[in-house]
Hints:
Number of helices: 9
Amino acid sequence: MEKFILDTCTWIEYFHERNGVPEHARQVGRENLCASEVTLAELTYGAINSKDYDRHIKEPQMLRRDITIYDISEVFGEYGQIRCALNKISKTKAKEVGQFDMLIGATALHYGLTVVTDNIKDFSLMPGVKCVNWVERKSTCLR
C-alpha cells in the first residue's frame, strides 16, 4: 500500500476537519499516513504562536504518538539533490520554494512516500517527488 507524508498545511486541514482531508485520510488508513520532523516543528511553532495553545499543542503530540515520524537526518543527500535541481531551473525558483518544503520532499524521496500537499506548484518542481492534493478547495493554512 502506498504511504503518504502529509505536509504541515494538510495536517492543519486534517485537525480542523475541513476540505475533505479527513475523509481521504480515512480512505487510505492511519497506518499509511506519516509526517516529517519538520511538520512537528512547524505545528509546535503554530501552537506556541496561537491564541489556543492548549488545544493546538496536542496536534504534534498526537502525531508523535499515533503515526510514523521520519527523521530528517537521513535525507540530507536528497535535500542537496533537490536544492541543486531547483537552482538549475532558476535561482529565483530555488529561493521561492521553502527550505522546510524541500526537507519534506527529500524525506518523501528517500523513503518512497507520496507528499500530500495543497502546494503542488512547489513540490512538483522537485525531481522524483510524487505529490497529490487532498484539499478540495484552496486553503490559506491559517489557524
